[in-house]
Specification:
START-like_dom_sf; globular; Alpha-D-Glucose-1,6-Bisphosphate, Chain A, domain 4; ORF3; about 180 residues; alpha+beta; single chain; seven-stranded antiparallel sheet; Cyclase
């Protein structure tokens, strides 16, 4: 048997061992995506590095509370309530990459975001990788998919909103801006 591999990102591999090589803590589910954003790499990194900015485009974030310079407490909406964990920065290369892993909490997870210059005139390539163990395993993952709270679905939408926010200064929505509250 040969060990031939292509140059595709490991998170899209059909070989689960190769795919899991992206999981810092051995999580069972790995997701990744790369998008291009027409903004300078340093600007995108600085915006992402200030965790107070993340709820602006991540729709399931309830709160991110800094604990110290390398740790923060996250509260995220899930299919059956809120989940909390403490996240620790495991790698921080200004302007290039940021990686994190959960230290404790309801959902074991880790992730990485990378910023790479695209070809001239094509902005920055932003690569996001998320690894996690869904609460309640396969059943929890299925329920999360049904309720659209599955991290892969949310992260794809979050990256799209990040692109919109950074390129235009706003996020497109179908909700009327002056909508009256429901009573």
């Amino acid at each position: 048997m040969s060990d031939v591999r292509d140059d595709a990102p490991s998170y899209v591999s059909k070989d689960s061992d190769v795919q899991k090589s992206e999981a810092q803590q051995g999580e069972g589910t790995v997701w990744g995506r790369t998008i291009s954003i027409m903004r300078p790499r340093d600007e995108l990194y600085a915006f992402w590095r200030d965790f107070r900015n993340l709820p602006a485009f991540m729709e399931n974030i309830v709160a991110i509370e800094p604990v110290d310079t390398g740790r923060s407490r996250w509260t995220v909406k899930g299919p059956n309530g809120d989940y909390q964990w403490t996240s620790v920065i495991t790698e921080d290369r200004p302007g290039e990459a940021l990686a994190w892993a959960s230290d404790d909490g309801d959902v074991k997870n880790s992730g990485r975001i990378e910023f790479r210059d695209g070809p001239p005139g094509h902005g920055t390539y932003v690569r996001a990788i998320l690894a996690y163990d869904p609460p309640a395993g396969f059943i929890g993952k299925a329920i999360a998919k049904l309720t659209q709270k599955e991290p892969q679905i949310s992260a794809t939408r979050d990256l799209r909103r990040f692109k919109q926010l950074m390129e235009t200064g706003e996020i497109a929505t179908t909700t009327p801006p002056n909508r009256e509250p429901h009573s």
